[in-house]
Amino acid sequence: MILGDLGAEVIKVEKPGVGDDTRAWGPPFVGSESVYFLSINRNKKVSTEVVRELAGVCDVLVENYLPGKLQEMGLGFEQLGGVNPQLIYCSISGYGQTGPQAQSPGYDSIASAVSGMMHITGPEDGEPVRPGVAMTDLATGLYAHGAIMAALLQRHKTGRGGHIDCNLLSSQVSCLSHIAANYLNAGKEARRWGTAHESIVPYQGFKTKDGHIVVAAGNDKQFVRVCQVLELIELTQDPNYKSNKLRTLTTTHTNIPSDWLRRFEGSGVPVGPINSIQEVFSEPQVKHNALIQEMKHPTAGRIAVPGPAVRFSSFPPSGPTPPPLIGQHTVQVLRHTLSYSDDVIRTLLASGAVVQNEAF
């Protein structure tokens, strides 16, 4: 999807007549279309021989099978590399292409659990919690996107493609960041902190009369400004609060005014409300950043999805196209990308090797 946002032509290969599992993930649905599927498949457009020929003319192949499965079908990296030595072949799996768990299936929730992400997420005195969105899936997609771009640059220098191994487990363990470093270097086991931060104080959510907000004082100077804004000057003189290290060892309870956001305006201290999703898409900055994209879907009508997070000064983002219906672009791809004749296309359709949506 991100590569499509950047202008790539994306051909999505699905099981004929059934399609991607996420087409059935719901509710909610828009008409008969899964909103989940619609949200992550914008910009995408089909027997093994067809895939082999596509690999011969494409720059990048991204696959999400159990390791070795495509090789059994004659579509592994070495096999397709013989067809197109410049092909960038990106494999995305649960645990990696080799190793003791390589053949285990993986979903976001499983990888989030195995990687420790759930262990560190949730209220301080509560049970482990699954993050509200599929962060492991998203992180892996972002890693894959960056790896593909780097591989394309390397190919520009060497003239050869390569095999990229992206997996959910590695992506999420890499994202453990300082949590991992704390354990690896100091033997410190992580625990859940709710909205708080174990190493920075104050850096957490607070409940006010008008809702929840987050205050993040990342240094001693900002802590002093917090105290000034909240009229707690005495804390700046208390030896227990003189440094961030000391503040992490001290607990303070204070009355929370309802006008915190207004008070912090212009203070230089990062602060923001904990928004509902409705409030998110009412934020003026969200609208200014063009984070709401609208597209016209052939059956669901007008749909809206989050827009790209990045803007470039040198070129505008590609205009979004709606996620395809099953088989919507089959004939188009066979005819225009692979130059198949109408007779060959009719034979493939009649055999069931490919499917064209009857609406197109």
TrEMBL record:
Coiled coil: none annotated. The keyword Transferase applies. The keyword Transferase applies. It comes from the Eukaryota. Keywords: Transferase. GO terms for molecular function: succinate-hydroxymethylglutarate CoA-transferase activity. It holds the Pfam family CoA_transf_3. GO terms for cellular component: mitochondrion. Belongs to the CoA-transferase III family. This is Succinyl-CoA:glutarate-CoA transferase. It comes from Oryzias melastigma (Marine medaka).
